[in-house]
Automatic annotation (TrEMBL):
InterPro entries the UniProt entry points to: Precorrin-6x_reduct
Name of this chain's protein: Precorrin-6A/cobalt-precorrin-6A reductase
PANTHER family to which the protein is assigned, alphabetical: COBALT-PRECORRIN-6A REDUCTASE (PTHR36925)
Organism: Rhizobium leguminosarum
Record bears the keyword Iron-sulfur: no
Keywords annotated in UniProt: Cobalamin biosynthesis, Oxidoreductase
This protein's pathway: Cofactor biosynthesis; adenosylcobalamin biosynthesis
Length: 256
């Protein structure tokens, strides 16, 4: 057969590492797609397209027009819409699909977690008494804090929150992980944080805030992931490569 054509829906460190590993093998044609929500995305090792597709049907059309053989959903665990679109497009086109999903964080001894189903639910669970809240969910959901203006918020995001929140008591930190335990402890102490709102994203890059909360005895409102899509999921880059080798054995890639 011809060299496999693979579309990776990215935006995560795992997507970049997978693209890097596949590029080094030089036995397939790759395109990495980024949603374009980050103003200064990290440098990628393969050709990149930036921007949405215009919905599930449009993604299916893109896959058919490009002659792709495999779709890999390596988006953020909370990018529910694009994951749903990916599942639809794979089924509509009949091409193979894999979801690369890092494992969720697990509550361990010393953690003070309260699991919630959404950012608005977390904001509501803060209660009536004013609190110092570290809103560590990124800029996309930051506006939900406006529903409870009596708290003081620290909002961290890769890009600025635009427009700024309609709140009197809010501070912003523009930063990109990975973060260190020492740095996170300093941040939490500096802002007198007594509760963190975080998504259960998994991975090592942003786990330090969870470790810091455990060390300092701070409560964490942990936003749970939505139910997984119907696409076959794997948890590591290595596992993804193994599935690709199963779908496209080396002899097939060489056209033998």
């Amino acid at each position: 057969m011809e060299r496999p054509r693979i579309l990776i829906l990215g935006g995560t460190s795992e997507a970049r590492l997978l693209a890097e590993a596949l590029a080094a093998r030089r036995d397939c044609d790759l395109l990495l797609s980024l949603a374009g929500r980050t103003e200064k995305p990290a440098v990628q090792p393969v050709p990149v397209r930036i921007g949405g597709f215009g919905g599930a049907a449009a993604l299916a059309d893109f896959l058919k027009a490009g002659g792709y053989h495999l779709l890999i959903d390596a988006t953020h665990p909370f990018a529910e819409r694009i994951s749903a679109n990916a599942a639809f497009a794979a089924e509509a086109t009949g091409i193979a699909a894999i979801a690369l999903r890092r494992p969720e964080w697990q509550c361990v001894g010393g953690d003070r977690w309260r699991e919630v189903q959404s950012i608005p639910a977390a904001i509501a669970a803060l209660g009536p008494a004013p609190r110092h809240v570290f809103l560590a969910t990124g800029r996309q959901g930051a506006h939900h804090a406006e529903a409870a203006p009596h708290h003081r918020y620290l909002v961290r995001s890769v890009d600025p929150v635009e427009p700024p929140l309609a709140l009197e008591n809010v501070d912003y930190v523009i930063d990109r992980g990975p973060f260190t335990l020492e740095g996170e402890c300093d941040l939490l102490r500096q802002h007198h944080i007594d509760v963190i709102i975080a998504k259960n994203s998994g991975g090592a890059a942003t786990y330090a805030k969870i470790e810091a909360a455990r060390l300092l005895g701070i409560e964490v409102m942990m936003v749970a992931r939505a139910p997984a899509s119907t696409v076959t999921a794997v948890e590591t880059v290595e596992a993804t490569l193994a599935v690709i080798d199963h779908l496209f054995p080396p002899a097939m890639k060489r056209g033998v």
